[in-house]
Amino acid sequence: MEAVVAGVGQVQWALAGHLSAEKGLRTGASVRCGYGGVAWGSRPAVRCASERRREEALRVRAVSADGGGGEGNGERFGRGGGGGDNGGNGGDYGGGGRDGSSGGDDAGGRAPESSSGILAWYMDRTQKNPVTTKAITAAILNLLGDIFCQLVIDKSDKVDVKRTAVITFLGFILVGPTLHTWYLALSKVVTATGLTGAGVRLLLDQFLFSPAFVAAFFAALLTLEGRPKDVIPKLKQEWKPTVVANWKLWIPFQFVNFLLVPQNLQVAFANVVALAWNVYLSFASHKEVAIAIPTATVDLEMSPFDEETKE
């Protein structure tokens, strides 16, 4: 009797497998079914390969929702899947990483949560393209500072476009790249930390770099404006008061900058006061150069009566 029942169970199991295979063929799925032992009153433990693959894919997709390994289907060891919201293409065994590089694990690197705000965007740019980003920033600050100087300080009726274009270009090719290189060099030359490190950087910045940079700025600006003959008179007239004004504004600010701000953020932090400084630089560099009038000397001849008077 038990043999008959077991035989009936096997027939039922075979029919179930046949129907499942037939359904898989209709849906286009690849079906490989097997069966385990059959006991009285129990159900066969059936597992199809298509079901296993489907569950595997769901698990991998849950892990790599943002990293996305595989050829678009979340396979565990797929090649070059998409990298999520901010990730790039993945490598052989993973999806996109945090910044678009290859993911490090088999399920794909997880992209970061989206950050909003201009500051987050700017800091991302300074990490990826530091020189270009700081050059563009300096150009924009020079442009705004010059326009403010012309309209508010000089009280001009309209903006001198040529003057603004020159000082904007100077910010791009000179100010931004030079400041980036200088701050980077300071961080490498001065390795001390705390008050000592900030003090040494401040001395080098304000008493070595700043006087030379002010002179270079005046010389470059006047040359680009087609007035190279005015460079020496301008330096004699404006260099010293400009350097003194620079010390008054930048010494306290730069001390805080060097003491508390990481090196990669120092140029960005300096931009807080750079707009005001650029207004002053624009004003000082475009002041009329005073023409020195030589004092006339008159030689007075002594009258012959003077000699007689002396006698």
Automatic annotation (TrEMBL):
Composition skew (Gly residues), residue ranges: 79-106
Keyword entries, A-Z: Membrane, Transmembrane, Transmembrane helix
InterPro entries with a match to the protein in the record: Mpv17_PMP22
Gene Ontology CC entries for this record: cytoplasm; membrane
Disordered: annotated span: 64-112
Top-rank lineage group of the source organism: Eukaryota
Main location, first listed in the record: membrane
Membrane-crossing residue ranges in chain numbering: 165-186, 206-224
Entry similarity comment: Belongs to the peroxisomal membrane protein PXMP2/4 family.
Protein name listed in UniProt: Uncharacterized protein
Organism: Physcomitrium patens
Gene expressing this chain: LOC112285849
